[in-house]
Amino acid sequence: MKDKKDFGFGTQIRKSPYFDATVRWGATGFSVYNHMYIPRDFGNPEQNFWNLINEAILCDVAVERQVEITGPDAFKFIQLLTPRDLSKLSVGQCKYVLITNNEGGILNDPVLLRIAENHFWLSLGDSDILLWAQGVAINSGLDVKIKEPDVSPLQLQGPNSAKIMQKLFGDEILDIKYYWFKEINLDGIPLIVSRTGWSSEFGYELFLRDGSKGDILWEKIMEAGKNFGLKPGHTSSIRRIEGAMLSYHADADIYTNPYEVGLDRLVNLDSEVNFVGKDALKKIKENGIKRKQVGLVLKCQPLKAPNTTFWKVTKNDKIVGKITSAVYSPRLKKNIALAMISIEESNINNILKVHNEDLVIEATVVEKPFYDPKKKIASKNI
What we know:
The chain is α+β, with helices and mostly antiparallel strands. Helices cover about 20% and strands about 30% of the residues. The chain has a six-stranded mixed β-sheet with strand order 12-13-14-11-3-15, sandwiched between helices. A six-stranded antiparallel beta barrel has the order 16-19-18-17-20-21. Strands 5-8-9-4-10 form a five-stranded antiparallel β-sheet, covered by helices on one side.
């Protein structure tokens, strides 16, 4: 095997500021996301899940690249990109938003941060929204600058994350409310710290604003967490699917509209504000949807790993949809899945068949999310 420092497939896939630290702390497998490596294996995905829900994990999510939008018309431009009403978005606040195309299809579902009055970050899922935003800006007539800044997020997630942050930053860090953030300096390391995360658990994101300090930041957090059960980890597919959190390209894509995945609340058609895809989304709402995302419970032996292909779903030998994400939940002791199903077959308790290679599996339509549907864990106050 080559030296671990030489791991890679060329310079076109970037390494994060935390890459060497994750390898040093036991990362054994990586995926590619936003043209970067993301750690996806520290040896045992189920143990990673238990570490997350019982103690805390530190995840390299520098792949969540930021699109920075500044300039006199920055707010107008951000509102042009998303169907969510941003009129009450304050400086220091985050919002989960959708980016839609002219046909109403979802291009991405980032978290938006308002850094200053006319300074915004879009914290992206896997997509090329930087190029989309630059393209939209060309003929918008708005005075904006759009670039990717030197910003690399880490996620500290789990019930002990507050204690670890308190040790690092003091009691004032506990004042940050759910979906708000603060600009903080930690021993010369410039950060934005938010009460957000991609886990459905209580946690924080630390946005490093100087990539040269990635290794130092990682080690500081791991040292602060050593008495609180902190482990190096990766985003948990088990917890994500339990929480019915979208994974772009899996559960939604350019041909998926917000109504199909139950995100009506992120679409504001009533105001006079224009945004890309508004006319199309009006028509979709008027005409109704032909399919929708549902939860499924699969009646079979525990799945050994998440699905890596879309599994066909049938009713009376007719294809009615596909499973987009599936996993075994050791907490629920069930195989759970997110699926896109024809509206006629989406009723709760409907029995369907799932086809995984040569296996035919009975599946029941259930409510989603599968666990903590009100997000009480993630949103609780300290």
